[in-house]
Amino acid sequence: MRKPGRSNYWLCAGIVACVNFSVFDSSAQSYPVKPIRMVVGYVPGGAVDFTARLLAQKLSESLGQQVVVENRAGAATAIATERVATSPPDGYTLLLIPTSTAVQSALRNNLPYDLKRDLAPVSLVSIGPFVLVVHPSLPARNVKEFIALARSQPGKLDYGSPGVGSANHLVGELFDLQAKVKLVHVPYKGSGEAVIAAASGQTPVSFPSVSGALPLLATGKLRPLAVTSAKRVSSLPSVTTLDESGLPGFDYFAWYGVSAPAGAPKDIIMRLNAVLGRIVQMSDVKEALNKQGLEPQSSTPEQFAAVISREIEQTVKLIQLTGLKAE
Q1: What sign for the dihedral angle of Cα 102, 103, 107, 112?
Q2: Stretch 300-318: mean pLDDT
Q3: In terms of pTM, does the model score above 0.90?
Q4: How many CB atoms lie within 10 A of CB 90?
Q5: Tell me, what's the pLDDT at 46?
Q6: Which terminus of the chain has fewer Cβ atoms in its 10 Å neighbourhood, N or C?
Q7: The predicted structure's pLDDT at residue 291
Q8: What pLDDT score does 13 carry?
Q9: Is residue 31 over pLDDT 60?
Q10: pLDDT (tens digit per residue) in 159-186
Q11: End-to-end alpha-carbon separation of the chain, Å?
Q12: Are 82 and 112 contacting, i.e. CB atoms less than 8 angstroms apart?
């Protein structure tokens, strides 16, 4: 029997490729056929939960299936991340991944997952700064006065965060480093608890997201001193930046994105990427995010993967400079 010629070989290969493509395309077109879970590593309240619920609502409308937010708080997002990393890679379990999740990968050696290996980045969705706030009883009305107060009481001023290795914790460590002060970190189970503790005076200092701080700032239960980004934010136009307030070059902000379990079909990843890209450009979504001090942001899966890698590398450097350790 004559062996197939080269042209016949490529013809057969082309047919196989077309069949595979049509199968992938078909799975993307039929997806989703059941509800989707979006897992959040914090209790309800705060920027991460707000972003997840906003996206869930719009994804439900765009995909024609309910997207349910599932809060799995604890271990600075490690519990939620493991939940998604070990879920079936079918696109029906997603993770709203904040900066803190990448930080954990640099901070902890015993995580039950490998962030780069076990999760498939889908897209960035927003970025936003933090804001240094204090309880009104604290005798500091600006950053200069606060630094002077902290230097006069080393190791006596507490600040709360959603947990060890959270982005709110990291920005506090950066502040200590650049301001040459020593604040005492107090971890809570979620961003809502941390900011409420600041408002009650239990831990009189905090670095919440702008969205988490706004309600308490509006009622005067917290006093804003500065935002942590290089630029001021539209929702707090009168609040200076740390850079303007005597800490030149200070520029730290959070990012939020969506990931799926590694191995999720590429066509489903790309469909979710396209839908999320459209959602963050919707005028009502932009307005909702802006009111929370967040800026809509989209990316390719590859670009989001690069953001995660860069965050891990930067955190490793911070750990080396500060001696930061998981508690």
Answers
A1: negative
A2: 93
A3: no
A4: 17
A5: 77
A6: N
A7: 84
A8: 41
A9: yes
A10: 999 888 788 888 999 999 999 999 999 9
A11: 71
A12: yes
Domain 131-227 belongs to what topology? D-Maltodextrin-Binding Protein; domain 2 (3.40.190)
3-state secondary structure of 148: helix
Closest CA to 277 of 308, 306, 299, 255: 299
Q: Is the pLDDT of residue 26 over 80?
A: no
Options 2.60.120.10, 2.60.120.260, 3.40.50.1980, 3.40.190.150; CATH of 34-128+254-322: 3.40.190.150
Distance between alpha carbon 173 and the CA centroid of its chain, in Å? 18
For the chain, where do the domains classified as CATH 3.40.190.10 start and end?
131-227
Q: Beta-carbon neighbour count of residue 218 at 10 Å? A: 9
CA pair distance 132, 146, nearest whole angstrom: 10
Q: Of 217 and 17, which is predicted with more confidence?
A: 217
pLDDT of 19 strictly over 60: no
- Gap between the Cα atoms of 315 and 317, Å rounded: 5
CA 318 vs CA 57, 177, 275, 293, 312: distances in Å: 37, 10, 35, 25, 10
Q: Are 299 and 125 a contacting pair, CB within 8 Å?
A: no
The DSSP line for 11-50 is HHHHHHHHHHHHHHHHHHHH--SS-EEEEESS-SSSHHHH
Q: Decide: 63 and 33 in contact? Cβ < 8 Å.
A: no
SS3 content of the chain, % helix, strand, coil (to 5): 45, 20, 35
- Return residue ranges of the chain for CATH 3.40.190.150: 34-128+254-322
Tokens standing for residue 69: 């937010």
